[in-house]
Amino acid sequence: MEDIFNGLGVEITLREKDDFLKIRETLTRIGVSSKKEKKLFQSCHILHKRGRYAIMHFKELFILDGLSSDISETDIARRNTIVDLLKEWELLDVIDEEIAEEPKASLGQIKIIPHRDKQDWELVPKYHIGKT
Q: Is-contact 11 95, C-beta < 8 A?
C-alpha cells in the first residue's frame, strides 16, 4: 500500500460515515491549555487524503507541507494518547496498532474540554487544513 502520509501520523478507519465530522469537532477540544487564561491549543487534526484518514499532530502537518518542525517525543506521545481516547470512544479504528503503541502521554498532559463547556474556552488551532 502506498504511503501517502509519508510515514507521519496514525492511519485510521472510520466506524461510521459521519465520524469524520465528529472526530474533527472533538479534536478542537483536545490539546494543551494555557495556564493563565481559558485558551486551548489544539494538538491533533484528522487528515483525509485520497479516501484514507490519519490523525496527525499539527507539527507532523508542518512536515507534510515541507516546513520545518521541532516535533518531539512528547508531541508524538500526546498524539498517541489522543488516538487511544478516540478509539476508546468508538470513533475510529487504528490500522497499524504498533505505530500508536509508544510513547504515551499521561492524561494530565492533555486537556479535554467537555462539549458543554466549549463556549467558555478560546479554542486555538495551530494549523489550518486546506489554507495556505
A: yes
Q: Whole-model pTM?
A: 0.92
CA distances to 12, 79, 126 from 76, rounded to whole Å, are 16, 5, 16
CB of 83 closer than 8 Å to CB of 45:
no
What is the rounded distance in angstroms from the CA atom of residue 64 to the CA atom of residue 10? 13
Contact criterion met (CB below 8 Å) for 39 and 124: yes
Which three cell numbers, joined as nine digits, stand for 115? 462539549
pLDDT (tens digit per residue) in 96-111:
999 899 999 999 999 9
Grid cell 521541532 is found at 70
- Positive or negative: CA dihedral 47, 73, 108, 102: positive
Could you tell me whether strands 10-14 and 30-33 are parallel, antiparallel, or unpaired per DSSP bridges? unpaired
d(CA 12, CA 1): 14
